[in-house]
Amino acid sequence: MATIVSYTARPRRLIQALLLLLAVAVGVGSYALVGLGRFDELPANLLQITVGALVLVAVLQIAVAWRAPYADPVILPIVVLLNLLGITMIESVHAANSIYGVRSSASADRQMLWAVIGVLLCVALLVLLRDHRRLRRYTWISAVVGGILLLLPLAPVIGDSRNGSRIWINIAGFSFQPAELAKIAFAIFFAGYLVSRRDTLALAGPKVLGIHLPRWSDFGPILVAWGFAMAVLVFQTDLGTSLMFFGLFVVMLYVATDRLSWLVIGAVMFLPPAVFAATQMGHVRTRITCWLDPLSSANYGSCEQISQGLFGLASGGLVGTGLGEGRPDMVPHAESDFVFASFAEEMGMVGAFALLLLYLLLVQRAVRAAVGISDGFGTLLAGGLGFVMALQVFVVVGGVTRVIPLTGLTLPFLAAGGSSLVCNWIIAGILVRLSDAARRPAARQVEGALPGPAARPGQEVTA
Amino acid sequence: MNKPLRHVWLVVGVLFVLLFTSTTYFQVVAQGRLNAHGQNQRTLHNEYGRHRGPIVVDGHPIASSQESGDTYGYLRTYDPGAMYAPITGYYSVVYGFTGIERSLNDTLSGEADALFYHRLADVISGRENQGATVELTLDSAAQEAAWDALDGRRGAVVAMDPETGAVLAMVSAPSFDPNELASHDTGAVSSAWSALNEDPERPLTNRAIGGDLYPPGSAFKLVTASAALETGDYSADSVIPGPGTYSLPNSSSVMNNFSEGRQEPCGPDDESTLAEALRQSCNTSFGMLGVEVGEDQLRSTAEEFGFGQDLSIPMGVTPSRIGEDLDDAQLATTSIGQYETRVTPLQMAMVAGAFANDGVVMQPQLVQAVRTSDLSTVSELSPREVGQPLSAANAAQMRQMMVGVVEDGTGSAAAIDGVEVGGKTGTAEWGADRAPHSWFVGYGQQDDRKIAVAVVVEEGGYGSRTAAPIARDVMEAVIQR
């Protein structure tokens, strides 16, 4: 269905500024509440954090107003809020650990440092990348870089295995999850590759069970992507990363070709390796067992993390224990893999819903940008990045809440971890750039645009 | 490319609906089950991390919580410990909790539904949520008198206000120090715990309301006499047979009129008035009376007194019983408080209370009031009737007979100058080669002040010598001050 979206070309920079201030107020306020909850006093570094956050959002606001004046005003405030809430939860877990001493976890200082780097990279991207279409030049370079990054944890010296998954690298004391960066590289590659091949890939082949299959000769790319996903699954033993990349590829393929058959084929192709992993790989099998029945006494020892996470969720209940009032420290990795459980414990179901809605809104903004952009590359990139973020949230939160088996992915912007935070800030920068392209009047050639409630793209995408 | 994008958005929507559903399930639907899960230490930590309300007797906190600065948050302390331990119970981080600590846990921790608005006010005003204060009905003077008089001998004392059911004293000895079990030093707690559990004197049992029941012996004759009066065929002055021995119907057993095989008749011509039989505590008189009255009447009177009922005060009370399907021989021994008759001291205090309250038995209660930390009252004791085993007129006759027992009979050690004291002793046989349990069950009243008391001393011998003086001390503490 062809859609004509007409925009009232308004920058809405003031709204973004107000929303950014609101995000900082909520984020810093929650940080202060953690200090009050744990130690009955305001955190000593509250002033520095407030000033720091205000400076960073001011830099973001200026950069956007200067280089992307028509960017979506909601994206950055959501990202800032998520980042600050993440810092809040990391501090809450750290403070609980320092009080009760059940485990130990790093303080939020490091995450703050990474946040600064992330914001600066985001700003740099906005300043240097004036037009997202320039990224299309790097299609094949991205493919090579993404492939190398993805396989890097398998390298002998720098590769590092944690919790049974080999998805980390260690360089000079810094650990890094290269899959996060590979995610961006692959999104660029898929978008560039698919936009040039979409017509060929969309050609119909034989019809089976009412579905037009693609031509046999077009199976090459999906087989390569599948092969990569399998390599990740088998050698890094991480179902989540593998699912994320393969899902990204299949969905972008579907968006590019509008052929439902690609989705069906993708799902069918992912099934055998998933079954293989579930039955043949001990590490994945344990996770499957813990997914199905973590609370029985036989499984308790091996499923402590997920059981403790569930107890945390239950302890939070409807409205939560309050920030700085819960015991997230009882969950292993409460500040990274299980930050959602920590958040849901202290903020309750209400807070967890608010958090999920923030992600949903962010994804919606990405899809909205995808709909608004005039070039196929931009559409595919925005749609792909939006979907992969949704998929990542689903895999992480679904793992914690037993919708699917637990995997090694992290919650974007929220979980402790520099690589994830920095890479997601870069994604945020790309999304801002794409949304600017989608809403810029020059790019849309809006005729007779009237102020007031004209047709909104939101109506287009929510069907 | 907008149509596939719409589909992708739809898929994202479905994925997030799954997340909303699963989050709701674990945070709301399965919340109770997860919180109650045995492996969930978080529940324990939450439980012990609350600022628990105190338990108060006469304005003095006998159990209170102080900040401990360790992982548990608060330490529960008891002062004085052992004297009130059977009532307060203990609050242990290792072994859970008992007594009032358990029965009123929701109230003390502040989680009870009745405290909802108080919690809400705490949240709004930013106050730290503190549990409610539980004020007990106990009279510290009566409790101390009973504790001192029992002096560590195995046994129990229960005193109550017959008109309201308020329990004024409840002592069970030997007792234990609940501070040892409430300690956060889990090693010390577990060694104290095993020592207490291995102690043959069973200090963790509240003998006043639970554990093994006691045979009431002659004290049960009060119930038999009440049943006889209620038939309408007898009065205090009715002359009933009371021979020196009574060959039990359809049985080879012979009941002697008095313990230790003494076989004097109850009066000239082997008969006496009912009042005289009670004064002397004649076994044959009450054995034959019970058979005449019949099992049905005896049972219905006993049940009106509270036998067979599950009482909660708010701790659960083991129901007292008189046995089932009795033949005449068993009925005769039941009527003098032997055979399968088993009672709690609390039940016997309720029996005594009925006579002092015009035949009405009140529900015994330990909680005078529940107040929030800002002293507003959540609930107060409201007296409730359990039953009326006998009419006010018959109750007056019983009082008259019981006064006779104390003035000029087996209960003379319980007499207090200037106070109307009525009662009945008991010397309950419970096993060959064991000294009998010593009982006194009675009431005291002066002007408007009334008290009903039951005392049992295990293997204490004659009730007249061992139990009666203890009852006197307790009654004195309440009535004369």
Task: Describe it.
The complex is a heterodimer of chains A (463) and B (481). Chain A has 463 residues and is mainly alpha-helical. Chain A has one domain (13-444). Chain A has 16 helices and 5 strands. In chain A, strands 1-2-3 form a 3-stranded antiparallel beta sheet. Chain A starts with 12 loop residues before the first helix and ends with a helix. Residues 443-463 of chain A have low confidence and may be disordered. Chain B is of the alpha+beta class and 481 residues long. Chain B is 39% helix and 20% strand. Chain B is built from 18 helices and 21 strands. Chain B has helices spanning 2-29, 31-35, 41-48, 85-88, 99-103, 105-109, 116-125, 140-150, 178-182, 186-198, 221-231, 274-280, 283-293, 295-305, 328-335, 345-356, 392-408, 463-479, and strands spanning 55-57, 60-67, 74-78, 91-92, 96-97, 133-136, 155-160, 167-173, 239-241, 245-247, 254-256, 271-273, 311-312, 316-317, 361-362, 367-371, 377-380, 385-387, 420-428, 437-446, 449-457. In chain B, the strands form 7 sheets. A 6-stranded mixed beta sheet of chain B has the order 3-2-1-6-16-17. A 5-stranded antiparallel beta sheet of chain B has the order 8-7-21-20-19, sandwiched between helices. The relative contact order of chain B is 0.13.
Query: What radius of gyration of chain B results from the CA coordinates?
Result: 27 Å
**Count of alpha and pi helical runs of chain A:** 16
The helix-and-strand class of chain B reads alpha+beta
| Counted beta strands of chain A | 5
Could you tell me the radius of gyration of chain A in angstroms?
Answer: 22 Å
The largest β sheet of chain A comes out as: 3 strands, antiparallel
Summarize model confidence as the mean pLDDT of chain B: 87
Shape of chain B: elongated
How does the major sheet of chain B shape up? 6 strands, mixed
Q: How many beta-strand runs of chain B?
A: 21
End-to-end C-alpha gap of chain B: 95 Å
Category by helix and strand content of chain A: mainly alpha
